[in-house]
Amino acid sequence: YILEAMSREPMFRAALNIRYSEKILRKLRDKGLLISSYDRREEPEHVKRVEGATIPWGMKTAIERVGRVPDVVYHLGDWGKEPMIVLLGEDPVDLARMVASIGEELYEVD
Question: I need a labelling partner for 18 at 20 to 30 A (CA). Which of 31, 59, 67, 99 fits?
Fold first, then answer.
């Protein structure tokens, strides 16, 4: 994810993969982040056959949907593939803070 993001917008230097959840997506939307997605069921067969080709294809698709590199990319999985959310940011510390903040809001951790 990060390599495709950096090739288009060098400010992106970190990515963090978290489990998919509608609640988490809602919190990310509430924070005003640009969110995009791709559907792994639409992945062309020639891409599926090449190891490592899915992520670049998915990122390109997600970027095309919103016109720039989004802050968040998600997909709902496919046969044998887990749904996921990927956060993109300028550095890992900011992403970790964001995830911690969302966790506190969702689970009311003191």
Answer: 67
Sheet order of strands, 35-37 included: 14-19, 84-89, 72-75, 35-37
Task: Please name which of 93, 102, 104, 90 lies closest in space to residue 19, comparing C-alpha atoms.
Answer: 102
Task: Output the pTM of the full model.
Answer: 0.89
Q: Is the pLDDT of residue 108 over 80?
A: no
CATH code reported for the domain at 2-107: 3.40.225.10
Query: Tell me, what's the pLDDT at 109?
Result: 52
Q: Where would I find the H helices in 14-91?
A: 22-30, 45-48, 54-66
**65, 37 contact by CB (below 8 A):** yes
User: How would residue 58 be classed by pLDDT, with cut points 50, 70 and 90?
Assistant: very high
- What are the residue boundaries of the structural domains of the chain, listed by start? 2-107
Q: What is the mean pLDDT of the chain?
A: 93
